Amino acid sequence: DVMDIKADDPVAFTFFTGYMAMFAASVFFFFERQQVDGKWKTSLLVSGLITMIAAVHYYYMRDYYAATGMNPTVLRYIDWTLTVPLMCVEFYLLLRPAGAKQSFMWKLIFASVVMLVAGYIGEAFTDGTMFHSVLWGVISTVGYVYILYSAWAGEAAQLAKASGNEAVQKGIKALAWFVLVGWAIYPIGYMAMPGGWLGQDGLGLLQPSSLDLIYNIGDAINKIGFGLVVYGIAMSETKRAK
Amino acid sequence: DVMDIKADDPVAFTFFTGYMAMFAASVFFFFERQQVDGKWKTSLLVSGLITMIAAVHYYYMRDYYAATGMNPTVLRYIDWTLTVPLMCVEFYLLLRPAGAKQSFMWKLIFASVVMLVAGYIGEAFTDGTMFHSVLWGVISTVGYVYILYSAWAGEAAQLAKASGNEAVQKGIKALAWFVLVGWAIYPIGYMAMPGGWLGQDGLGLLQPSSLDLIYNIGDAINKIGFGLVVYGIAMSETKRAK
Ligand SMILES: CC1=C(/C=C/C(C)=C/C=C/C(C)=C/C=O)C(C)(C)CCC1
Ligand SMILES: CC1=C(/C=C/C(C)=C/C=C/C(C)=C/C=O)C(C)(C)CCC1
Question: Is the pLDDT of residue B156 over 90?
Fold first, then answer.
């Protein structure tokens, strides 16, 4: 009954490191929150909540994978159901000083729900055909593209530009890069599944077992990396204000 | 013995997301409490206690449901026995600056106890007949309507009006909307049970398994949503005072 990870199982390896990294990142964000100016405290708290929520789900996913060797799809989407909307909240918090309305946040959250519900149907209810995988992947991508557009050219980008506030612009630019590069990791993992374009029935580049490996890498980058970027901006703005 | 959630089981999905959401909300309220003015700190603490209590009960309800597939009715009412009176305390805390007496709080708590005891008899001791379900549902609704009346036209509404304090009025108006719309979700769930008006023996609109789904949605809205509204008012009042 002791934790036993096979030496040649990178998926199990990343589930375990992912769990600990998320846990440690939460402690980091919660403590460092004391050091930043008041207006940044809520952002750092939300960063810490995202990694804290992920730590708990990684704990369960790690065990599920160790016991069954299967993708913990349901747990994965339970995690995203909470953490992706919280990333939309981070957008909103950064842009509130620039005059963002709550409706801006709800539009992003709505797009993220479309993205996740379609992705869930695509993965959890797959019949193994490429038709199913592609259909739901495309619908999911519509939600993704909305967020991407908002960050680079739409409402978020315009609010940041109009604000004339350098810290806000840096923050939104960073988030936009995360959405473009970091979030794009997930559809690659998705395409590893049976029926996926990059999997065995498609180009044959990825094994189904790569799916979780890719998602774990994506989560580390997006959840911890993005929090660290916000933290960096918050710290330098705090020093400058002194 | 590993956490295994069926892909097509929304009840289990919401028990798990509910658990994590309550947990995260508590951490949020406890931390952000540092940022608000003294007079709001107790309200934020009580909001955090409500979600913290719920997180623990969701942890047990989730496991109970995963193991048995049945409604965790007793655990549910154990949760409400603590959290609903605490929501009455929130009413009182908001109205104390407007001169609310402790007797005001005890009247609300008494009404909530009537509501919950009758609801418990209705659910836990059901013989499956509509007579039982409707009888205890109606008695429970008497307690509910008292709280609703107090919030919209009775003591709570009058105290808020007389206070001339905008923040208090906004807070009570928000609570009144939660009691009218958010709390009304619960009787809908109740009517899904055997013998209920909306269930198989009535209009046939809801399955017995919908009961917990509906209660979980109601809890997320009322416990977290209401806490966030109080938090929003507290933050804007704190900023205004500076
Ligand atoms: C576009 C697309 C997807 C996108 C998923 C994304 C973008 C997930 C982001 C998760 C994050 C950012 C978590 C961090 O906390 C899916 C659902 C795989 C399905 C295939 C198409
Ligand atoms: C009217 C009515 C009910 C009302 C329940 C309510 C209103 C519960 C509120 C719970 C809250 C607000 C929890 C939050 O912490 C019951 C008992 C289902 C029985 C049927 C009639």
Answer: yes
